[in-house]
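User: Design a sequence. Structure:
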């Protein structure tokens, strides 16, 4: 597990600025993702903190804040957190690992894992999802976005042509649903994005 975490941190430190430039206006261009985030914001009830785990450059965290959610961001990459703090002053961002959440039990009214599990190997998912379950309040929502499909590929070059070394894991909705249920979540809804393209994505909505 240490190797994939190190590879992820180093890779995203290298591409942090270029990645932020790439995704800065992505929500503006995608009404379905905005709608999914609006639904998630509603499900949190607006009562208590909400964590964006694997927040990257913080654009989604800031979008949630603008929607009235008490959101904060957590990311493994110090480079990403530096960019997030630069681009979104006044929003709380912290360096941390989803494998060891330093958050109190039942302290969150919602948790977002927005395409942040795509580099996580299957064997690490039970520990991570158990941590998500632990920090959420009973009945609080979890939204997970991920690359749909099957298979794993090694990504060696990223945004701006910078070198990376991360494995990208695709999962079917059925596979991710099974992982969530094993961790104690109830999966309530599934949203499929670009289902007929070579790069489909899925968002699952679940509750603790």
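Assistant: Done.
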């Amino acid at each position: 597990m240490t190797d994939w975490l190190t590879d992820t941190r180093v890779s995203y430190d290298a591409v942090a600025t270029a990645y932020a430039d790439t995704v800065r206006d992505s929500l503006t261009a995608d009404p379905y993702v905005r709608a999914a985030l609006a639904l998630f914001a509603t499900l949190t009830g607006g009562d208590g903190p909400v964590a964006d785990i694997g927040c990257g450059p913080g654009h989604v965290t800031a979008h949630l804040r603008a929607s009235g959610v008490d959101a904060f961001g957590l990311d493994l990459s110090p480079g990403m957190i530096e960019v997030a703090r630069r681009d979104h002053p006044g929003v709380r961002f912290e360096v941390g690992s989803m494998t060891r959440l330093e958050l109190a039990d039942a302290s969150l009214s919602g948790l977002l894992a927005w395409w942040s599990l795509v580099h996580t190997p299957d064997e690490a998912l039970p520990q991570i999802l158990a941590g998500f379950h632990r920090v959420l309040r009973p009945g609080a929502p979890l939204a997970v976005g991920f690359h749909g499909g099957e298979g794993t590929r090694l990504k060696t070059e990223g945004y701006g042509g910078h070198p990376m070394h991360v494995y990208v894991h695709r999962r079917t909705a059925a596979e991710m649903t099974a992982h969530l249920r094993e961790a104690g979540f109830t999966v309530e809804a599934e949203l499929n994005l670009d289902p007929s393209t070579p790069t489909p994505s899925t968002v699952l909505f679940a509750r603790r």
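The helical segments are 2-23, 31-44, 59-66, 78-87, 125-135, 173-182. The first strand starts at residue 50 and ends at 53.
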